[in-house]
Amino acid sequence: MIHAVIIRTDGTMSVIDHCPTLSELQGAVGGLIAPIYGPEGITGYVNDEGLLIGLPLNLIASALGGQPLVGDAIITGPLDSKGETTPLAEHRLGTVLLRNLRRDLREVPLDLASA
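The structure corresponding to this sequence follows.
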């Protein structure tokens, strides 16, 4: 089952088929993590110091998170009642993302000025 997706700033994505550990989350974003909570309960994680160290804008993660985000990001499903991430594949927005995983999303026009 697809639990999460890593979305890189270059537009490439990778699937994680298990619940990522803290160490895996930190490795994927390149440092300490900061949670983000997007529309419809989507949960994500980005580098906590991404703005301070000048990481590039992540257009796809920004669109999913509903706010400008920098650096590589991990997107998961909503948190459950115990605060654990749920699989992205079980979430409606996650199924849309996964359906388009092979598509080149870098060409989708995004208006981040209003974010």
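Residues 4-87 form one domain.
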